[in-house]
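#struct-queue
[09:14] JT: dropping the first one here, sequence first, then the structure tokens:
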Amino acid sequence: WDKSGLQLAGDLGKNINSNKLETAGFINDDETVLLYSTYRSGGQGSLDIWQAKKLPNGAWGESENLGEATNSPYDEDFPMLAADGKTLYFASNNDKSMGGFDVFKSV
């Protein structure tokens, strides 16, 4: 395991960081899309997946909740966008899980 590509998380600004817990984050290969989970208000319930896109000035734009097609009143966490840029994998303990967290796919 090579941890040379890892770095400490930092403040990403008011569009991302809130006074709520932000957990697992994912940045796509060209570093233009950030997906992360948070308990911030405006979501579908508990822990929701949110998205922000990088602006031309290099800052992150406003975060958007992925909505009820992905999020539920339960917890959604650990988002990962596939190389096709469309397929989202994430973990959830929603009412469709087999118990605890299961992996789901959204296209």
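[09:21] JT: and here's the second one, same format:
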Amino acid sequence: VLFVHGLNGTSAIWLPWAKRLLDHNYQSILVPLSGHQMGSDLSRTQKEDWLQNVFEAAERARRCAPGVRVLGVGYSLGGLTIIGALERYPTLHLDRVFLLAPALSPS
């Protein structure tokens, strides 16, 4: 399960979920979005950086566990970033996507 945090958040928000899933033998990857780490300058990052963070995490999951389903869970900006990464990278495949309060506007 790939967990992607929201704007100004960190991957730490997903630790309780990751621990709970591990109790049920599910592996998690907590995706840190560029510019959100302690001491980072968020103003120096671009949307493309975040899309690449998601893509690289998904690719790492596929390499580490071939044949295993990869799920994406995103909160707020994290949800928007997952959708953006799926649009940007045609080879990116997530078996299921769960968006929690995604930063999307109706169109």
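[09:30] RK: nice, looked through the second one.
[09:31] RK: The beta strands are 2-4, 29-31, 71-75, 96-100.
[09:31] JT: good to know. The radius of gyration is 13 Å.
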